[in-house]
From TrEMBL:
First-level EC class: hydrolase
Pathway: Amino-acid biosynthesis; beta-alanine biosynthesis
Organism: Salvator merianae
GO terms under biological process: beta-alanine biosynthetic process via 3-ureidopropionate
InterPro entries named among the record's database cross-references: Aliph_Amidase/BUP (IPR050345), C-N_Hydrolase (IPR003010), C-N_Hydrolase_sf (IPR036526)
CDD domains: ML_beta-AS
One Pfam family this sequence matches: CN_hydrolase
Functional note: Catalyzes a late step in pyrimidine degradation. Converts N-carbamoyl-beta-alanine (3-ureidopropanoate) into beta-alanine, ammonia and carbon dioxide. Likewise, converts N-carbamoyl-beta-aminoisobutyrate (3-ureidoisobutyrate) into beta-aminoisobutyrate, ammonia and carbon dioxide.
GO CC annotation: cytoplasm
Protein name: Beta-ureidopropionase
Amino acid sequence: MATPRLDSLERSLQRHLPPEEFAEVRRLLYGEAVSPLDLPSVAVSAAAKSRFELKGYRFGAELEQLRQPRIVRVGLVQNKIPLPTEAPVAEQKTALHKRIEEIVEVAAMCGVNVVCFQEAWTMPFAFCTREKLPWTEFAESAEDGPTTRFCQELAKKHNMVVVSPVLERDFAHGETLWNTAVVISNSGVVLGKSRKNHIPRIGDFNESTYYMEGDRGHPVFQTQFGKIAVNICFGRHHPLNWLLYSLNGAEIIFNPSATIGKLSESMWPIEARNAAIANHCFTCAINRVGTEIYPNAFTSGDGGEAHHDLGYFYGSSYVAAPDGSRTPELSHTQDGLLVAEMDLNLCRQIGDQWNFKMTGRYEMYAKELAAAVQPNFVPNIIKE
Ligand SMILES: NC(=O)NCCC(=O)O
């Protein structure tokens, strides 16, 4: 079974480089340094007691004359599954609820306004198996399933917006399954849901066996703490997916994910960060941690041996800002809560500097894309 060889890129660089060189390497890799956020000591002790990493950072912005700063704290949660995949479904789900509840308690102590959990957080990422039972039993109604009701209580208790990515069973449409993020307002009301638009067809990510591409477009949720959107996992490889959330006005785009070392670890630091730069918004990349072992071996359709696990999920959750700066990542191996404070005024400030929305030439792309999807499309290749 493969395991991560590094717990933190940032800590490794810091360990091995002289301080001045480290500062310059970090500037080149991560942009201008973000400041550490002072977190209450009760939160630090509670996180240590519950054995998860707690990190906090702050992104600044210029003061404006006509607008007050719009300060928001987001919380990104990454976690292992607490029970083995063979445990009864209800017990696995309850254990996950309990784990998240204790992490959200700490998020509340840190003044988090919007919290987001990892993709399909109420279950093991069992789609690699291609088996239906028991995994499809983890699916629930986005509107009033037990997990949504649980998150509504958390939202009300902590006055916190909760983004809860789950396997959805859509009871209004033939009990079909979807990969969905439910957005719950800090009042406890379900604001709506966003569905995963791009389904992987790579390696053991056999998700197309379970659900279809999302049919909801690119909704943006107006919350008390800013306009947020959710681009679920594989959507991060698709620049147009980020763009459409941004065109609908998203200031923070969450990217709850489940991805593994051998597949994407070197792409991970680039994609959400690039999206923050290209779209003048904040992006929050969240990945689960640990290795999940399944009772029945499955093959990858590549002639290789059957195996019981998908590989290790490398965590490394981080937040990126529109100016290209970013926080260091959470651990590659441990459960964690990343708290990031941001002034949403930075989105317009960077937009006014770089003008990507103004220079975007969307009309030209709209025309060329409309032509490219026609059956009679002829690629514009000029030959001698
Ligand atoms: N959950 C998911 O879509 N994973 C696919 C692999 C990846 O995007 O890195």
